[in-house]
């Protein structure tokens, strides 16, 4: 298993190579390289052609006017190295280079009342609170996925459980029709006496809504772009998490439980939202294809390692 992990990491780590080709090269133009690299590049290229065929009508067709910004986004996504980012707006926020989306309003804190779907969710807070109390409050610690302190660097006290019909049917129904982005829709918990360090999520085309369900009245909050944003049970907050932010629960004993929803930036049109969702679904398919393509090499290396160990 160790060998498999090392090989997979080695093949995936390409520090000087763009995450995706910057242009659609003809096969004869591609530089020489290992066979596995060519196979992975072919999978990647097939994914982009599939996307263009679905959205534009053909792999070589131009983008319609409603998707011009999306086309520019795709160009930046293909040209930049995964996880590279830049700090912008005088150090107030950070953005992944591959996630730059043109001409979106940058505002740290938004008025939750401007979003009709959020008002409908807030109206169902008593029902959602009852569901969380009956299902999540007694869960063992291992149920909660810490998306911040999971590497052991520190105990953030944050945990998430992704929404599923069988886990939280009422919450799932409450979000019907909401413009959910391909990131998180979950029940979240900020444990008493813990905090998430200041950071940026670096994806500008997603906003985050928190609906506070159960917890202390005045001790749990975020700090977004230097402004305190309280989590008040029965109320919602919306923020742009590209702005540097932290999360806190200063209460000594009571955890804060929230409905956490990542949704599309309101400046995005319906066609752009559909395209972004389709892109991320196709990228997940391509990732599975890449893992399948690497599997024979991983198996062969593991067999060689076992044979070598047996000889010793």
TrEMBL record:
What Pfam families does its record include?
Asp_Arg_Hydrox (PF05118)
Query: Which Gene Ontology cellular-component terms appear in the entry?
Result: membrane
Please tell me whether the keyword Signal is annotated for this protein: yes
Q: Which InterPro entries match?
A: Asp/Arg/Pro-Hydrxlase, Asp/Asn_beta-hydroxylase, IPNS-like_sf
**Where in the numbering of this chain does the Aspartyl/asparaginy/proline hydroxylase domain appear?**
166-266
Question: Where in the sequence is the signal peptide annotated?
Answer: 1-18
Task: State the UniProt keywords alphabetically.
Answer: Dioxygenase, Oxidoreductase, Signal
Q: Which GO terms describe its molecular function?
A: dioxygenase activity
Q: Which domain of life is it from?
A: Eukaryota
Report if keyword Amino-acid biosynthesis is assigned: no
The UniProt entry's sequence similarity note says: Belongs to the aspartyl/asparaginyl beta-hydroxylase family.
Listed name of the protein = Aspartyl/asparaginy/proline hydroxylase domain-containing protein
């Amino acid at each position: 298993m160790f060998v498999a992990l090392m090989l997979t990491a080695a093949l995936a780590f390409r520090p000087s190579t763009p995450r995706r080709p910057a242009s659609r090269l003809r096969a004869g133009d591609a530089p020489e390289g290992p066979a596995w690299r060519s196979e992975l590049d072919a999978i990647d290229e097939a994914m982009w052609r599939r996307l263009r065929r679905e959205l534009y009508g053909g792999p070589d067709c131009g983008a319609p006017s409603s998707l011009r910004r999306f086309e520019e986004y795709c160009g930046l996504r293909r040209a930049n190295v995964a996880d590279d980012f830049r700090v912008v707006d005088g150090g107030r926020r950070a953005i992944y280079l591959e996630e730059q989306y043109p001409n979106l309003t940058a505002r740290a804190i938004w008025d939750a009342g401007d979003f009709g779907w959020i008002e409908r969710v807030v109206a169902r807070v008593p029902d959602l609170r009852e569901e969380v109390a009956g299902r999540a409050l007694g869960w063992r610690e291992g149920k909660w996925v810490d998306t911040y302190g999971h590497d052991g660097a520190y105990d953030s006290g944050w945990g998430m459980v992704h929404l599923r019909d069988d886990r939280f049917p009422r919450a799932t129904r409450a979000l019907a029709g909401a413009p959910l982005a391909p990131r998180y829709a979950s029940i979240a918990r900020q444990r008493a006496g813990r905090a998430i360090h200041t950071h940026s999520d670096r994806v500008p085309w997603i906003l985050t809504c928190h609906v506070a369900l159960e917890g202390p009245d005045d001790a749990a909050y975020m700090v977004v772009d230097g402004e305190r944003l309280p989590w008040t049970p029965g109320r919602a907050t919306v923020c742009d998490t590209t702005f540097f932010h932290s999360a806190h629960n200063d209460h000594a004993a009571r955890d804060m439980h929230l409905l956490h929803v990542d949704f599309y930036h309101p400046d995005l049109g319906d066609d752009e939202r559909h395209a972004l969702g389709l892109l991320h679904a196709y990228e997940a398919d391509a990732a599975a294809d890449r893992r399948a393509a690497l599997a024979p090499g991983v198996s062969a290396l593991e067999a060689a390692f076992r044979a070598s160990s047996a000889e010793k």
